[in-house]
Amino acid sequence: MNEYRLPNAKQARFRNKTYQAPIIYDAVKLTDSQKKLGVNLNYHVITYGCQANVRDGEVISGILEQMGYTFSDALSKADIIILNTCAIRENAEKRVLGVIGSLQSYKRKKPEMVVGICGCMPQQEQMAQNIVAKYPIVELMFGTHNISSLPTLLENVLTTRKRNIEVFSALGSIYEDLPSVRQFRHKAFVNIMDGCDKFCSYCIVPYTRGQQRSRRWEDILKEVKRLKEEGYQEITLLGQNVNAYGKDLDQGCTFADLLEKVSDTGIRRIRFTTSHPWDFDDRMIDIIAQRDNIMPFIHLPLQSGNDEILKLMNRRYTSKQYKELFDRIKEKIKDVAISTDIIVGFPNETEEQFSDTLKMVEYCQYDNAYSFVFSAREGTPAARIEDSVSLEEKKRRLQRLNERLGYYSKLNNKKWEGQVVEVLVDGFSKTNPEIMSGYTPQQKLVNFSYDNAQIGAIIYVKITQGMKNSLNGVQVHPGKENHEQY
Ligand code: SF4
User: Fold this and answer.
1) Ligand 1 atom closest to Cα of 315?
2) Which residue has the CA at smallest separation from atom 2 of ligand 1?
3) How far, in Å, CA of 460 to CA of 450, rounded?
4) Which one of 66, 128, 146, 208 is CB 3.0 to 4.6 Å from 123, fit for a cystine?
5) For residue 360, how far is the Cα from the chain centroid?
6) Could you read off the pLDDT of 334-360 as tens digits, one per residue?
7) Are residues 406 and 426 both part of a single domain?
8) Residue 402 lies in a domain
9) Hey, which of 13, 200, 312, 346 would you mutate to test ligand 1's pocket, going by the most ligand atoms within 8 Å of its Cβ?
């Protein structure tokens, strides 16, 4: 394996407090030969995991299109397939390994096809070695730190027909001006930072994405202004922990300052994710409350409602501090919706500790939640804890939790019945062309019948029914014939 460059777990853990990440502008420069490599060839990118990965997938597509490749929906027509992976849970990884296996049949029929893998999975030392050893079909492998090397790596594979494996562990750099093919024409992800230094004890992200490094606010603003000029209605500011934005820079711009500057651009809708309760300060709450174009929706991961478990998770807040923050957000931001993440069955979690999580759910009555059974990630401190709770018991707890989460989700959605809301239209229902769908400011999915709605427009919908995971409604036109109703 010596000819390959593989990640190193020890290096991945290393942090340097005085590190200033280099900024690499114009990060992808293609040679003349690279610009022609994909002409008359097709590509397909399969992305798993979080929004940061979705954004990386857009960049990978952008690079491939600059190399002349054309997107194909059909795997059988693809000349290159890239799996852009997630390592947050074991199940997600198993799925990817299953997909690599299933690509064998395509490769047999089309031996010149290139199968590549990137993202968080190959950033783990053991996993990278495993893929190299057991999956010879994978000819191209790169990590989260070197997406911009894709043209060179791919050119090497195509010209030598030898595997090009280059994944390294690093504190990380900031890449600007990356090409991308955005998923939507009306809403866009904007990375404001990468990496994470929180080291929650169960989480692999700090090891796979490196040290926290924020983009300069001027570069972020330039991207947002360009998106606005291109007609985008909504942007989502992305980072593993957006509230810590700027703490690694000496530019004197906090996340609250950044929100203010982005809001000043006048773009219609601003969202952000993900927030760590530890870094969520009152000024941020005030800015969100004051600015109409910052959407009243906050994802506030709880993870556990029990203080001992929170400590073992290294979450740096207590259940009391979380509640106080939750209350301040609810009190100050009008009609705010709050969603959360919860992990059930952290090693040795007792029934009593789990019931503290249930109590917190009763208190917060979340609009939406992502709940999971704890998944041990090799190399993290939590994975080393010997666990006495059976998987069956954890699954039972998850079911009990989901029942309560579902109850409150529906209860919150029912409150919207009869109200008229603004919806940014995403597209048509997959099963019924007479129904379109979109999202409210509170990030509630609405399926509605329409008369003249267009994708990318912000329209009014009267909510007729609130269900567990979505709202139903009908398009209305306040100010016109049904003005008097509102
Ligand atoms: S804040 Fe914690 S859970 Fe979130 S990415 Fe960082 S280490 Fe993982």
Assistant:
1) 2
2) 200
3) 10
4) 208
5) 25
6) 999 999 999 999 999 999 999 999 999
7) no
8) yes
9) 200
